[in-house]
Design a protein that fits this description.
Layout: E1 2-3, E2 10-14, H1 20-33, H2 43-55, E3 65-69, E4 72-81, H3 85-99, H4 102-116, E5 127-134, H5 143-155, E6 160-165, H6 169-177, E7 181-182, E8 190-195
Parallel strand pairs: 5-6
Antiparallel strand pairs: 1-2, 2-3, 3-4, 4-5, 6-8, 7-8
Helix pairs in contact: 1-2, 2-3
Length: 196
């Protein structure tokens, strides 16, 4: 499947269709989408753990869709039915916890607890956009907008919900252009947006 953008035609691939090198490229973009979430881990460690999550079924990252230009991964989008969010996040945390030593588990889970306090609950309707990231050299090419359009079409009348960092003006502007609105009060690091 291909997707048109100002960057030219790009191929869409599921993570299970990627090479090992492309999987690490996808993991870098997942980390880029939420750097605060992965903050307690070193870059290399985070990429290896994220790559493992990408290929493990049933967790938050397992249904990631990647855009390729040639052989390079230039975007990722992780989305799934919103009603599955809690189960998928638990599965991802279980996978992450099993790959860490005791010191890392303690540090990471302490960080995730404080992170969780800044993220409100979403509606269980429609689709949940867990991550979206575009490689820096491909930003501004309409790729993110086209990926969102496909997700919105898939979700239909049930809509799409997401969390966005409150200070990420560029992402907020993109979501608003695509019809998303804030559905929570200000005051947290991450805000909830929905398109219904």
């Amino acid at each position: 499947m291909t997707l048109a953008s100002n960057a030219g035609d790009v191929a869409l691939r599921r993570v299970d269709e990627l090479s090992a090198e492309q999987l690490i490229e996808a993991a870098r973009l997942v980390r880029l989408a939420m750097p605060h979430f992965y903050q307690p881990l070193t870059d290399d460690r985070a990429e290896v753990l994220i790559a493992a999550q990408l290929v493990e079924p049933g967790n938050e990252l397992s249904d990631t869709l990647c855009s390729l230009c040639g052989e390079s991964v230039i975007s990722i989008m992780c989305a799934y039915p919103a009603r599955e969010q809690a189960d998928r996040q638990r599965a991802g945390l279980h996978l992450l916890g099993g790959a860490l030593d005791r010191v890392e588990v303690s540090r990471v889970f302490e960080h995730l607890q404080s992170f969780r306090e800044q993220v409100g609950p979403i509606s269980a309707r429609g689709m949940y956009l867990a991550r979206i990231a575009i490689a820096e050299s491909y930003r501004g090419t309409s790729l993110a907008s086209n990926l969102l359009a496909g997700l919105i079409e898939t979700a239909g009348d049930e809509g799409v919900s997401l969390h966005v960092r409150a200070d990420n003006r560029r992402a907020i502007a993109l979501y608003q252009r695509r019809g998303f609105n804030f559905v929570d009060d200000e005051g947290k690091d991450y805000r909830i947006m929905e398109r219904r």
